[in-house]
Design the sequence.
């Protein structure tokens, strides 16, 4: 598992409903050469299984109701785990999508939603024990207003294990992102992963959860106690040293070989932000500084579709060609200067993650410096070439001294710089960063 992480420069998330105006697998497949050219090794699709179309809003999530789209289909409320939702296409479309991705050197992760199902799930009538029941026999509803699956049922477990094998065996997918993964018993995942790795040994597993124990089965945890809350620093609601301290606390909880997937945006955040996307609230320069931080820290960087062109449009995971119609990425930005600049930056970040072994390790050392409220300053050590980074997480210019710098930093060779530089005066090292400026170098 560790070897897979060391080969992975990062994961690119595709929400089919926002990725193209059509919102289909066929339309998304045409965009795969562009995604591959950016440099990720993995793409992760939001759920493509048939979603429940029950219109009874008692069984809609708060986010679904707040969207105002009136769309009964929530991608995370599944009706048929073995069917591709007709909104996205057919079995043949998914097969072709995966084949094209593989041809381009991309690996495909599907999204598994096993904590809950839709109220109209196809198995409920024949297998009432597949969901948790109240004392009166009614279906027990979880926090998102969905029926909770019953992992005490051996039949339910076998059903879902066969579902995991089905998509690997038939569609040749390369792994899964598991929704609320550590809300599901660990022994379920142990057996499920054993079965799919018997079919395809190099399966990659992402847990949407923070329990470090689950890293005995999963390759990476998706959340980790909010440790990558970088945006509040850029908004002025948090200090940079608080961010760094929290990140270090999270790192220390990880078992040997365990890593965390981190990001500044995803389908959930973008939907909740509505029109206040990060590109608007902290600006293009701010987003780029945090993307640099995301890629240079340890763990696995995760990028939401559209960030490579500085997309700032309102997003909503419930909008599609039938409802809402305001969810597509603003691909026209690719023709504008800010979009062109962002594409260049993203390619460079993915390239550095791919080429620099130090950036794929678990090693990280923080440097003591004199701008704790603004800057993250650290080293990614490696015998083949350590990487030094200084990133201003705020819009205020800063100049500061780095305390006790190693002599080797005098030979720092620039890798990445925007509004940032360093210099020595005698034995002292100084860094100057414009607002959201950054500097990274190898020594």
Sequence:
């Amino acid at each position: 598992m560790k070897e897979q992480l060391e080969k992975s420069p990062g994961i690119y998330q595709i929400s089919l409903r926002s990725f193209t105006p059509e919102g289909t697998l066929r339309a998304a497949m045409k965009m795969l050469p562009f995604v591959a050219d950016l440099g990720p090794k993995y793409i992760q699709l939001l759920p493509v299984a048939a979603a429940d179309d029950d219109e009874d809003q008692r069984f809609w999530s708060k986010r679904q109701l707040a969207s105002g789209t009136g769309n009964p289909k929530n991608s995370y409320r599944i009706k048929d785990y073995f069917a591709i939702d007709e909104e996205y296409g057919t079995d043949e479309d998914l097969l072709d999508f995966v084949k094209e991705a593989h041809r381009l050197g991309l690996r495909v992760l599907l999204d598994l939603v096993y904590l809950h199902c839709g109220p109209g799930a196809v198995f409920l009538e024949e297998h009432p024990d597949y969901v948790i029941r109240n004392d009166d026999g009614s279906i027990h509803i979880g926090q998102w207003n969905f029926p909770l699956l019953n992992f005490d049922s051996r039949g339910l477990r076998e059903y879902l294990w066969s579902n995991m094998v089905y998509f690997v065996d038939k569609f040749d997918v390369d792994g899964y992102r598991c929704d609320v993964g550590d809300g599901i018993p660990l022994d379920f995942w142990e057996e499920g992963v054993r079965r799919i790795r018997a079919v395809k040994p190099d399966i990659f597993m992402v847990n949407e959860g923070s329990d470090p124990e689950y890293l005995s089965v999963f390759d990476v945890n998706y959340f980790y106690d909010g440790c990558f809350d970088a945006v509040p620093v850029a908004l002025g609601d948090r200090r940079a040293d608080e961010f760094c301290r929290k990140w270090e606390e999270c790192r220390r909880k990880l078992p040997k070989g365990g890593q965390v997937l981190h990001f500044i945006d995803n389908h959930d955040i973008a939907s909740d932000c509505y029109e206040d996307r990060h590109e608007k609230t902290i600006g293009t320069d701010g987003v780029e500084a945090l993307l640099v931080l995301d890629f240079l820290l340890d763990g696995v960087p995760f990028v939401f579709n559209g960030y490579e062109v500085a997309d700032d449009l309102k997003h909503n995971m419930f909008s599609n060609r039938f409802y809402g119609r305001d969810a597509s990425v603003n691909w026209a930005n690719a023709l504008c200067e800010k979009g062109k600049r962002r594409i260049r930056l993203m390619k460079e970040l993915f390239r550095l993650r791919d080429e620099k072994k130090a950036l794929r390790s678990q090693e990280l050392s923080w440097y003591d410096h004199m701008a704790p409220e603004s800057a993250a300053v650290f080293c990614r050590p490696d015998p083949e070439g350590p990487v030094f980074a200084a990133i201003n997480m705020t819009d205020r210019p800063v100049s500061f001294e780095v305390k006790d710098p190693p002599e080797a930093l005098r030979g720092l060779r620039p890798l990445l710089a925007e509004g940032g530089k360093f210099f020595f005066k005698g034995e002292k090292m100084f860094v100057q960063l414009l607002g959201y400026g950054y500097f990274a170098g190898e020594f």
Q: What stands out?
A: Residues 82 and 163 are 7 Å apart (CA to CA). The two ends are 29 Å apart (CA to CA). The chain is about 30% helix and 20% strand.
